[in-house]
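Write out this protein's structure.
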Amino acid sequence: MKTRCSYCTLWLPTLLTSIATILSFLAMYFFLHFNINAMIKAHEHSAELTKNIEKMISSTLNATFLENDEVFLRAVNLSNRIYDEMVELKKSSSYDTSSLMESYKQLYKILISAVSYSKENRLEDAKNALEEVSIYTLHLGKQTEKLNNYFMEQEENAEKAFALLIVILALTLLSVALFNGLYLIPKRVIRPLEEFGEKLQKNEEKYRIVANWTYDWEYWVGKEKEIIFMTPSVERITGYTAQQFINSPSLLTTIIHPDDMSLWMQHVKEAHLPNRPEEDAQGVEFRVITKDGHVVNIDHICRPVYNENKEFLGVRVANRDVTVKMSILNELKEKNILLDTLATTDELSGLYNRRYFNEAFEREIERVKRMRTTLSIIMCDIDYFKYYNDTYGHQMGDGVIQKVSAVLKSSFSRKMDIVARYGGEEFVILLPSTPPEEIKRLVEKARIGVVALGIEHKDSKTAPFVTMSFGIINCLPDASLHPDKLLKIADDSLYESKRKGRNCATFVEC
């Protein structure tokens, strides 16, 4: 709308003035053309009329002196033509011809009367007519001179009018030019162009700052796979300059880590396509090898670019260096694993702690209820361990716990087995979906393994070395069996083993 208004404001006055000038010149041309033509034609009529009158006078005089009737008749015919021409001149002339016409009429009457007399009186009348003709010829000359002066005056007036019109049109054009040059063009053209230039410069500066100061590595790949633009930050990340990538677009693929090449090619095949919606941004993480040989983790995201006509212009890409982030995440992951281990593992024995066992116990009960399979619970502890601590000290006692824990962990080594320190010298083991014979075999293996340690225990009432007692239950849990109830049954079976003399196992099915 502003462009249209500026166009109308700037060019409409000049256009209208030019049209008015052309029309004025055309009007002046036609006016002068027809006016001058009319005057020239009237002047020609007048001059022709004057010649004819002179010819008629000459013919009349010749006929009078020669007494020739044929010449008289020609003079009469000529006089009739003169009269017709005078009538035509009066009709077509734009100036006053009344006095001239009257003179012609008087002269005409005299000559007609001269040629109409009888032959006897013709000589005398001709002399009188000649005198009259001389008088009227003189008068006719004056009238002709007056007519010529009139033509000259009309021509001078036309020239003055034409000159005045040219001056008026020149002043009008000069006014329009001054108005456009001093007001309209500076206000409607120069100033808007200056403002547009200032805005363009500011936008260009913003673009330059955004592009050159962005921390991420960003670039634009054209539809012919050429690199249209790339931010200078690429050099900070890869060691290569933006110009090197622009000169050699294949460098983008060359620096991809070999182990991530298939991942990158798959992403290019799926994401760098012209038929994706503009808002469809797709990402992938991969590694690149920098110019100096370092490995950098890249978080890559791209989206297609279209113009206003929905024509595909390529792919806009943003790459972020996440090497530090990945290092932090890996460190956090390791720490989380450590924290999880500390939260679920008994520090002394290296086995699961009681907290983890309680959570796992509830999960296993729900699982075996769904699967309708059995769950075995083994409670065990070191025989007369309090006496051992009193005799050998707690530090030696901690060593016994560590060694016994290693035997239990190696004996129940399946991935689904859960071995935990329940408290003090007491341990608990969960064996999901295990046949009774296999349970007994594994328990016996653990019991023998502890005996095989050969740890001296002179105050034990069972043997001169460290031993363990086991209580085992094998159940098919249902809604009536609560976890606490199952633990109570397992604990009772352990005490049964102790009642039988320890260093043995008691098996119960429920």
